[in-house]
Amino acid sequence: MKKTITIIMISWVMMFGCNPSNKKDSSNESIAKMDSAITEVKPKKVDKTPVVETDIVNKSTKTPEGRCDISVILQTSESIENLTNEDIYKFLFTFSEDCKNNIEFGEFSNEVLFEVLLRYPLEISNNLKKDSIYQDIILNEIANPIMEMQSADEIINNVNSLEIPEQTKQDVISSYKISIGYK
């Protein structure tokens, strides 16, 4: 900062001291030049706030649109009594391998999945057949509940009613029973 002021003062002395014509008009021009020189030389205030490259961060953690969308899970939970087939499809569509590191999504979606399974087993079965639904991930969620269920028998009956291969049903039910300590 001191260097900048010194340079400005030396420039000012040189401009006024070395000016052969010390007329008032030219001195006014010199002052105007000096003002513009000072404006240009003023040091800029440095913002020390750290800059985060959000585009880079989002690209590395971004999931495909519609996957891992906790707002869809919340909407499903809030409308659990009146879900349409489209609502259930949107809900099941959110499940993805991309969500495995999202703990909040994992816990909440697992809990809501069992609520939906209890109320809408046929709709889940029909939607599991669609190509865009990750059937393996959803069946794995059913086999590994996060919360303890009071209605284990009803869950088992609903899994049995799903239109999936018999071996898959038995694997899911077996894993489910082990995970809840079902006898």
Automatic annotation (TrEMBL):
This is Lipoprotein. It comes from Marivirga aurantiaca.
